[in-house]
Each structure stands twice: as C-alpha cells, then as structure tokens.
Amino acid sequence: MSLKKLNPALVKEVQALKEEGRAKAPERVIVDYIPPRGVKGPRYKIRGADQEFIRLNSNSYLSLSHHPELIKAADEATHKFGVGPGAVRFIDGTFHYHVDLEERIARFVGKPAAKIFNSAYTANLAVALTINNKQTYWIGDELNHNCIIRAMRISNVARENKAIYKHNNMEELKQHLENIPAGIQRAVVIFDGIFSMRGDYAPIDRIEKLVAAYQDRLPEGIITVVDDSHGIGAYGATGRGTPEFTGAGPDVIVGTFGKAFGVNGGFIAGSPELIEAVRQKADTYIYTNPLSVADCAAAVKAIDIADSPEGQERLKHLHERIRQFREGLEALRMESIPGPHPVAPLMVRDTAKTHRMVQRLYEKGILVVGLTFPVVPRGDETIRFQINAAHTEADINYALEVLSEFKT
C-alpha cells in the first residue's frame, strides 16, 4: 500500500488552510531552560535562535513544573513502578498513585469523587459520552472551548437537542431553558470557567440561580458543567478557580493538571454516582492507558503546594504581576478585556499590526500568541499574554517597555 495518491490531496487541503489564513506556523522547538537569576525570571532557548526568551504564552500559571518537590515525587514514583502503567485502568493498570490523585483533586475542588484522564480534552469527551442520550438537551456558551464542542459531536448530540447562547448572555440562557423541547428527560448547561482567549469568566452564580428555577421541569433534572482548566489553581482567593471566584459551585467540574499545576492530565469531579458511570461508560477512560505514575505523583505534590502557604505566596505574586501588567497596558492606553486572570488579551484590532507586534516581541525575546482574521472576526485581532508566577517585576516592565514602541 502507498500514500502516493493521498499525499497530493492532503497537500492541497493544507494549502487551502494557508490561503484562508488558518494554517499553523512551524512549531518552535525549545532546547534549553535557564533558571531564574538576579531580577530575571526563567528564560528559554529555541532551536535556530541565539537569544533567550521570556515565555509570555505559557499557561503554567503557578510555575510549578520545575519545582524540586514535583521532580522528586515523579522520580520516586517512576523508580518504584516504571515509566508506564502497562494496561488500561480496568485491566490492572490502576496504581495507588492514580487513586491518590483522584482523592486529592476531589478534596481540592470540594467534590466527593473524581476520575482522572490523560487530558481535560478527553475528560470533556467522557462527560458527554456518559451523560448524553436521546432525551438529553445541551445548552452551551457560544465561546466554549473546542473540546466541549467536539464532545457534543462525538457523543452524537442531535441538532434539535442543543442550543447556544451568546457569550455570558443570561437572558438568552433563560430563553433556552424556557424552550427546552417536550420529551426531554435531562438537560446539561455547559460552559468554560475562564474563556481562554479572553481571560473573562462565566458568571456561575447567575447561571446556577437561573438553572435552579427550571430544575423541577425535567424528570432527571438540569445539571451544570464547567470546564475550569484555566481557573483551577490560578483563580479565586485560594486558587479553587472560577467557582470560588463567583461564590457558586456547579454540579460537575472538569479541569486539568497541565496548566496551573504544571504537570499533565485532566479530571472530572462530581458525585460518586456520576464518577462510577464515567468508569463504566466513557470510551476515553475505558480504552486508553492512564497517566503515568510520575504524572500522578507530581500532580498530587503540585496540589499540596497550591494548598499550602507557599502556594498562597505564589498566587499572591502572580496576582501582583497580573495587576502590574494590566496597569501598564492602561498607562500605555492599550485596550484589554478587564479581569484579574493571568490571561491578559491585548486588543490590537488589526491583522497587519498584530503580526508586526508579535514579530517585534519575538525579536526582543518575548514569546506571545497572536490571533488574527480569519481565526478571529475582523476587528477582534488580539495578542494573548499569559502571566506566570515565575515572572518578575523586571520581566513585566521589560515587556511593557517593548509594547511602548507601539503606543499610539
């Protein structure tokens, strides 16, 4: 067999993406890590570039991935049980490190049970595969992450069994709740906690209040599900995420260990009954090997640190740097979407200018993400900055100094 006939077709498809402006740029390869020194935070070396870079495009919000305790925990677990589990969970691929992590993250987010996955993406798929049937109605925010959209498609949510409300529009959410079709047994209201391209948050307190008013209309009720991957660990007074920030807890929390906790993997947290149903029904849990014991051990240690005085100091420093950066943008009269989250979008609103700014930042040793038309609507062109706890006051001042070149 050969790919000779298929290859030209694939080349045409990729070329079409390039012409549409949707193709990804070649991936930069990180080849070295330089620890913090003096007034500088960590720096990175990239293959083919001579200079050092500040990563202002990383979602490792608490900067825990190089923490010696995480590395030690991962090393000890690996030396004890090896680098891979050797089987799926139900065929003796479950080690005590998996169970320890599930118990620890459940306690951290205030739920009675949890199940871990290789990513939050596969965790969202698992939620939909577990909950959906022909009598399930789904209501979601229009800016929900791709993994939520894909979860609904993969679990075969029928077109007539779903509705989308404008971003954070509670009046439209209310209308969709009011218009749930006859014959529906259960409904799911699903949304991101932090919307990763904007840094704004779902008003979970208002969503919960709305849903409560319609709860008794369906035999199996209405549940709320939040993907708080960008919130857990980095948001709220103690890092419990968007539920803590808004003062309201949804029924199900999906999250990741790959952002604020600096490790790898995802989770679902909810009732014991839901978690057992996930274990029995979710393909993305049943048919794939789990996280390594190293990932699990490191993630448990990361949660312990986040839940300690050291973690609170890191969170405090993170919030100080966020405030510094946002106040700096304001002083430069540059537009952003307000909020205390580490995602700080700079609204450039011009494709060509966005490309120029991203290139200039790169030339000055700063890595960021630019979002331009047609990936975002014309006029919404953005540069996404992500602040981490390892960034120093000097790092943020330097980034603002470079941005000042574009001051209008």
List the helices and strands and how they pair.
Layout: H1 6-20, E1 30-34, E2 43-46, E3 52-55, H2 68-81, H3 89-93, H4 96-109, E4 113-117, H5 120-131, E5 136-141, H6 146-154, E6 162-165, H7 170-178, E7 186-192, H8 204-214, E8 222-227, H9 242-246, E9 252-256, E10 266-270, H10 272-281, H11 283-286, H12 293-306, H13 309-331, E11 343-347, H14 351-363, E12 366-367, E13 369-371, E14 382-386, H15 393-403
Parallel strand pairs: 3-12, 5-6, 5-7, 7-8, 8-9
Antiparallel strand pairs: 1-2, 2-3, 4-10, 9-10, 11-14, 13-14
Helix pairs in contact: 2-12, 4-12, 5-6, 5-10, 7-8, 13-15
Share of helical residues:
40-55%
Following the backbone from N to C, one meets helices and strands in this order, namely HEEEHHHEHEHEHEHEHEEHHHHEHEEEH
How many distinct beta strands? Answer: 14
What fold name goes in the CATH topology slot of the largest domain?
Aspartate Aminotransferase, domain 2
The CATH C-level class name of the largest domain: Alpha Beta
Uncertain segments: none
Summing up helix and strand content along with how strands pair, one would put the structural category as: alpha/beta
Radius of gyration: 22 Å
For the record, the CATH architecture of the largest domain stands as 3-Layer(aba) Sandwich
Q: What is the terminal-to-terminal distance?
A: 59 Å
CATH superfamily of the largest domain: Type I PLP-dependent aspartate aminotransferase-like (Major domain)
Mean pLDDT, to the nearest integer, reads: 96
- Sum up the overall morphology in one term: globular
Count structural domains. Answer: 2
Largest sheet: 7 strands, mixed
Give the strand line-up of the largest sheet: 4-10-9-8-7-5-6
Strand content: 15-25%
Given the structure, what is the number of helices?
15
